[in-house]
Every structure is written in C-alpha cells, then in structure tokens.
Design a protein that fits this description.
Blueprint (H helix, E strand, L loop, with lengths): L1 E5 L3 H13 L3 E5 L2 H10 L4 E5 L7 H10 L5 E6 L4 H9 L4 E4 L4 H14 L8 E3 L2 E4 L4 E4 L2 E3 L3 H12 L7 H8 L11 H14 L6 E4 L3 E4 L1
Parallel strand pairs: 1-2, 1-3, 3-4, 4-5
Antiparallel strand pairs: 6-7, 7-8, 8-9, 10-11
Helix pairs in contact: 2-3, 6-8
Length: 221
C-alpha cells in the first residue's frame, strides 16, 4: 500500500514516514499543499495523511480539490484544531477520518488500517488466499500453520497481490502501490523480490502460489 504524508512540520512528517515504512508501507512526503496536489495527480496513492494547516494550499482545499476531481483516495486529516466545527467541515468535504494533534502513533496506524480496509471495496482485516494467511495489523504471514518472515517489500507485494486476487497485476501497478517516489528503480528489481518471495512461500509448502503471466505481470489465486 502506498501512502502520501502531507505535513509542513518537517520533523513530524519525516517521523511519520519512517514509522509507516517500518510497517511495510511505501511512503512519499509533501511539505505543502501545492506539492501534495502535484504528487496526488501523478501517483496512484491508496491513502493521504493530510495536515489541515499547510502553506501554499491548505488541507481543506487540498481535500476539496481531490474530491472535486473525482479522486476516491482515502484521506486522514491531521490538525491541531480540536473544535467540532473543524472536524465536521473536514468530513463534509470528503475526508474519511480525523485525528487531532497530539496523537499516539499506534492510534494513527489503527486509523490508517481502518481507512485502507474500507477504501474502495471492503477490505478484510486478515487476508486469506488458498493456504496463505496475511495479517496487515501484525505484519504476519503464514502458509498453512508455517510462519514466514518477509521483508517490508515482500510483504507489500504479497498484500497487494492478495487484495487483487483473481486478476493479473502488472509490474507498473506494483511500482505505483508498493514503491515510493524516491526509489531508484535501477537498483530495485521487482523480479528479484518476487523470486525471493516465491522461495519463502515454496519453503513453507506454498509452491506455485504466485504465477507469472508473460508480458502482463503476476497473478495469485
């Protein structure tokens, strides 16, 4: 899953990005509303964490513009304003949830997971496809009863394939949702990650769970 953090407090934005990456998310950061809109236009994000008080274009306008453009991206608003009116206004223009600063990171994670589950089609907290079980809440994966240890990228790839079970996912689509914008694609290889993921699944008894469709992408289920 790919997330855009938009927050003008650089230390907070960078800390959020670091914490989210540790949870296996691909994360980009914007420090003002104008940059947030630019990134949201060129990249296919699953979630936007959006501060309300931003330079250049404030959070309310960013949210409004995205919804007016037809974007269905999940939006979690952050603000130091605790007033009911601010929260209602944010939700009325299309935010999915609202978190008042200061907050604890585990609470933000819970809200992120909640929005990602209900964004688009209903998303189950625990994913199961054939013999594979994947729990995004605990970053845990297993084949039958055998636990497997995955890197953040391997987990992200497997989660995205399982959320799109039954259809072919292209390499370009995986790049959009599992890799962040600052990734050097010359040193990152989807094929290497897929091969390593297959080896771990095979070792746990999950042979042949990920198929390659030549010239198209990857398929599970």
């Amino acid at each position: 899953m790919r997330i855009l953090v938009t927050e003008d407090e650089k230390d907070l934005a960078d800390a959020l990005a670091k914490g989210l990456k540790r949870q296996g998310y691909a994360v980009d950061v914007a420090y003002d509303g104008e940059e947030s809109l630019r990134l949201a236009e060129v990249n296919d994000y699953d979630l936007l964490i959006l501060d309300l008080n931003l330079p250049k274009v404030d959070g309310m306008e960013v949210c409004q513009r995205l919804r007016d453009s037809g974007s269905s991206i999940g939006i979690l608003m952050l603000t130091a304003r605790a007033g009911l009116d601010s929260r209602v206004n944010g939700l009325d223009i299309g935010a999915d949830d609202y978190l008042v600063k200061p907050f604890h990171f585990p609470e933000l994670l819970a809200r992120v997971r909640s929005i990602l589950r209900r964004e688009g089609e209903h998303r189950k907290p625990i994913l199961r496809t054939g013999d594979i079980m994947l729990d995004p809440n605990t970053i845990r994966a297993a084949v039958r009863d055998t636990q497997i240890t995955l890197t953040a990228k391997e987990f992200g790839i497997l989660e995205y394939l399982m959320r799109n079970v039954g259809r072919v996912v292209s390499q370009e689509e995986l790049l959009e949702h599992v890799w962040s914008e600052d990734t050097n694609l010359f040193t990152q290889s989807i094929k290497v990650h897929i091969n390593n993921l297959r080896k771990k699944l095979d070792a746990a008894g999950g042979e042949g769970l990920i198929s390659t469709v030549k010239g198209k992408g990857y398929f599970i289920g």
